[in-house]
Amino acid sequence: MEAVLARMRALDERLPEHDGVAVFNRVYLTVTENLHRRIEHGGFPGPRRAAVLSVRFAERYLMAVDAAAEGDRTPSCWRPLFQYRRHPGVRPLQHALAGINAHIGHDLALAVVTTCRALDCEPAALEADFDRVGDTLVALEERIREDLMPGPDLLEIADPLTHLIGSWSLQRARDGAWASARLLWTLRRSPDLAEEFEESLDAGVGLVGRCLLTPVRQKSGATWPVRF
Prior knowledge:
Elements: H1 2-14, H2 20-40, H3 47-69, H4 79-83, H5 92-119, H6 127-148, H7 155-166, H8 170-186, H9 191-212
Helix pairs in contact: 1-2, 2-3, 2-5, 2-6, 3-5, 5-6, 5-8, 5-9, 6-8, 8-9
């Protein structure tokens, strides 16, 4: 866990403040630090399982960052965030939610499967830890929206942004990730079908991310919050 936290902290120091990936990274760093503290203090029924799941989960995001930095092809779910990371019409909250969408909607399901393989267990053995991780994420979602949402002086131009973000739910994304993980585990002995489903999941989550990153017009001279 310390290794992935160190990499996220290094990204936080290196990336420009207004970079869309930096916005998501700050949010995710906060989440991962929170999870690490809870695991260390006995907040999970299976600390080792929770730690392995958290690390496998984080590694998928970091692999996408590495691929983008090297000019390699990134997963479809992450591609919109990397493509729109510097777009002047995309707001910090959109960047944060697009990253969360990619990570929860696609990466979490795959992390459950790789964790089950590493620990030689069924997904059911991870369900309680999965739920605790999800509860932490859902609890932080409201704070993310509050910290990154434009203030009252920008309410008029925030209306389309409010519509956009209101169409996405972390709770539904988490439920979908668990269902996808169980299906992928069932398909593990049919690699062709598993690959086909994974590609479809990746593409579908990427499409949602592209919608979340629809540019929203900004009033001249307005500033938007970027710190989390």
